[in-house]
Amino acid sequence: MRLCDLLFRAKFVCMLSVRNYECSTHDPEKWLELKLQKTASVNQHTQGCIGEESEEKVRYSPVYLDGKMRRFPAHFCKNLINFYLSFNQYDSARLVLESIPDPVDISVWNGLLAAYSKNRMYREALLLFRKLVLYPHLEPDDYTYPSVLKACWGLRGVREGEMVHARVLKSGFGSDVVISSSLVSMHAKCDRFGSAIKLFHEMPERDVASWNTVISCYYQSGQASKALELFEAMSSCGLNPDSVTLTTALSACARLGDLVTGRRIHDELIRIEFPIDSFISAALVDMYGKCRCLEKAREVFEQIRQKSVVTWNSMIGGYSLRGDSHACLELFVRMNKEGFCPTSTTISSLLMACSRNSDIRHGKFIHGYLLRHHVEVDIFIYSSLIDIYFKCGKARYAEEVFKIMPKENVVSWNVMISGYVTVGNYFKALDIFHAMRAHGVTPDYITYTSSLTACSQLAALEIGREIHKKINKIGLDSNEIVMCSLFDMYAKCGALREAREAFDKLPVKDIVSWTSMIMAYGSHGQAHDALQLFHELRQLSLKPDGVTFLAVISACSHVGLVDDGLYFFEQMMHEYGIKPGIEHYSCIIDLLGRSGRLNDAYSIFKSVPESKLDAGLIGTMLSACSLSKNMKLGQEMAKLLIQIDPNDHSNYVVLSNLYASVGRWDGVKKVRVIIRERGLKKNPGCSWVEVDRKIHQFFVDDDSHPQILLIYKCLRGIGMHMGKDRSHDRINNGMSFHD
Asked: Domain segments of the chain: what residues?
């Protein structure tokens, strides 16, 4: 007999029994109770197999006969409620409960409350509880509160949860381990981690569920190390962790990169032959992957007989962290063959792997897969696509993705702004920033950080100041990352007073921020302030690094403090044990060259290993020769530069200027001929000016500006006034070659 026929017969029996109840001289109630219990028992063994037809026929139950509600004794109604609950007919069960004149049996209420909470009908559960407490002779018991508290955290009802908590304490159930554990869970799920942890520590007796909740609290709040401490404490209390405990502990190890603890937990599970389910398996793969132990991760992964999507994602994510796009795609193909559909996490991990090693070919393959299979793309996948195209230098592709992606989320705009900053297109980065505000999207700290970086590179001080006002207005002036970017912007724009104010307001000053402030002073000719700041740095526990000394020596070079610069160079090597790099030697050569000590500079140059192979160092030496007008040594340096890169236009320009500085016009002519014969061209020059918080950009032979006629008219006027001075300079200093 089919199940639907069996259920229909059960309903029919119930209907007949109610009719007989009104006219029979037998004891119909007891007979009907047995039938109801038998029918409910059958359903418990066959739950989940009810067809639409049988569920429709359930509605024709005794409750609705003749268009009115029948009233039955309480014990009969209790069985009828259970009968309806066994078929998930919650409204019918509620109507039966409401038909009871004085429902003083708390178990009837508990059954319906538990059913509501179990099936996520949280609002209905709380409404029922509010009715329950209106009955003066009806008291909630230790079965009532867990269901009600679950409904509270299901709705994130903090206020309702606090009221239930107060009632629990008032009724004397505060020491019940199950209710206490439910209270801890309620506070935790409502994001009241502090209250949850406090309640946990006040519990006289703790069960595994309460330990799991608090361990999860610490993990979710970013305190993975504290979560592991509690995991160890739980074991020392003699409680055996369950799957939830172990999954959270392994996830904490993954977040901390704690391979030792993670491996120890795994070894213990093997030793005690703990049944490893899909959640623990996925956590193990994720832990080993994030701890860069991919061989072990792969071993655990291959041992899993029934892999889940989470397991596949964990394994792909491990290879993604290494940037191994080939291994990621190999697993991706296997995953598809075994019938698993990739999720957003899968695709994001694949794209992250391609981005890490700039694998544009595989990145395009994933993009093509999304288009061919009509995969629903979310904001994270769009962002990953834009990121990989920018990382691979394909800004045009990134722009095309941005055109079709939703723009209501700040993430969409952030990835474009940071992408343009990454590739050095600071103008477009600020254009996107302004367009974002016009679109009505509120910037966050990431937006401001990237935009301030663009301002610092363009010296767009007015736009930077405007952003600073916005930062103060929305309360981001306490954000360390934003304030560091703000300070860097002011420093690079030469606004030293504002840079120092931002520097002094930094909540934490690390060696990078100290170095940036020293560099700002030095590059703008305030070497004494730079040295004073370096002295203050040395009084602290922070240890200057090679970049800090580079900033100090550079500051000395800008104002001609030769002896001080040499002193700090020696101090760096001998007192701090920092080995000089090419950049340090280049700075010292520049320092000596500016002061006319060319021979000392050349001695330093020759002492550097493989100095004749570094174009930057040779270029610095050539500039020193130009300042001293040492033709012989300058020609030698220029030849070295041309040997390294014979197609670099700037090398010939420097040599030509050296010839011009000593009046060797024949040499200038020869250099011009070489440039023309080799077809060398200088990259088009670009300049910009900030007027009224708007940046105006100009290129060579550019007439696209809307006010170009007025600009040329002004330039002609300036040229006429400068003509006399320019002629005078050429006569006295000789002609230089700057094209």
From this structure: 1-101, 102-205, 209-304, 307-405
